[in-house]
Design goal:
Number of helices: 10
Strand order of the largest sheet: 1-2
Distance between the termini: 52 Å
Largest sheet: 2 strands, antiparallel
Order of helices and strands: HHHHHEEHHHHH
Oligomer: single chain
Helix content: over 70%
Radius of gyration: 23 Å
Strand content: under 5%
């Protein structure tokens, strides 16, 4: 693993937040990343509601098969739903179609309801599969897998440094908030509060830039040349072959069902 990301305090995002099973751990990380990516592309291309329901069922079945913590995983997925729930709630009132009923003069259309269901199923199926296959990887392992899949090194570096130092910035934020509380600062709807929060954000930016410069200097002193040194090896095994066959079978089944249902309509 890369020397420049393995030292220091424990990273904030780790695999113990969603522990993987022995079955997943024995798969090559590249297989899991590729399977999740292909499933996401296929699911986004689906339009038929029954096939989308089936795709979501595949994600749920994968979650159950890997025996990940069901409650914790669903709570994380619900957090994602919080970002799109308002959009989904407004779609039945904004998409033209046959209104089922009216609310304050706005028609609730069946077409809008179906579109909201389609978007919701697509998002949840993709996110759940990503959480199961990719979210259970250690960030450093994920970075190495992406590097071996020929992902641009700049993006890999950005991912690994973000994961490594997000906890450091969080601790810096907590220190600043503690200093504000010691000085009897309390949140309220006032100009003073808004000004103080602005100062807090500005100070976080200043300290982030200062820390990044010190980190860059330290890396240069240790001979960092812009490449990721890999001390581990990744090999595809027979389990990866079986996993690939199963993934291809599921993908082909979804594609054929989409084609058949689309032709029926």
């Amino acid at each position: 693993m890369g020397h420049f990301v393995s030292s220091g305090p424990k990273i904030l995002i780790s695999a113990d937040t969603a522990q993987s099973t022995r079955t997943l751990d024995e798969l090559d990380p590249r297989s899991r990343v590729l399977a999740a990516l292909c499933f996401a592309i296929l699911t986004v291309s689906l339009n038929s509601l029954p096939v989308l329901i089936l795709a979501f069922g595949v994600s749920v079945a994968t979650l159950l098969a890997t025996r990940l913590p069901l409650k914790a995983t669903l709570l994380r997925m619900a957090a994602m739903d919080g970002f799109i729930i308002f959009m989904l709630a407004l779609l039945p009132f904004t998409v033209p179609g046959q209104p089922l009923f009216f609310v304050f003069g706005f028609g609730f259309s069946l077409e809008g309801l179906l579109k909201a269901a389609e978007i919701g199923l697509t998002a949840n199926a993709v996110i759940l599969m990503l959480m199961v296959l990719v979210g259970t990887l250690e960030p450093v392992t994920l970075g190495h897998a992406l590097h071996r899949l020929k992902t641009p090194e700049t993006l890999v570096h950005l991912l690994m440094f973000t994961v490594r130092y997000i906890s450091v910035l969080h601790q810096e934020y907590l220190r600043l908030r503690s200093a504000m509380k010691v000085r009897s600062f309390r949140l309220s709807n006032s100009i003073h509060t808004y000004r103080t929060i602005g100062y807090l954000v500005g100070m976080m930016l200043v300290r982030s830039i200062d820390r990044s410069e010190r980190i860059l200097a330290a890396m240069k002193c240790r001979g960092f040349t812009g490449t990721i040194p890999l001390l581990d090896t990744m090999r595809f095994t027979g389990r990866d072959g079986v996993f690939a066959v199963c993934a291809l079978f599921v993908g082909a089944a979804l594609f054929i069902l989409e084609w058949k249902i689309g032709a029926a309509y």
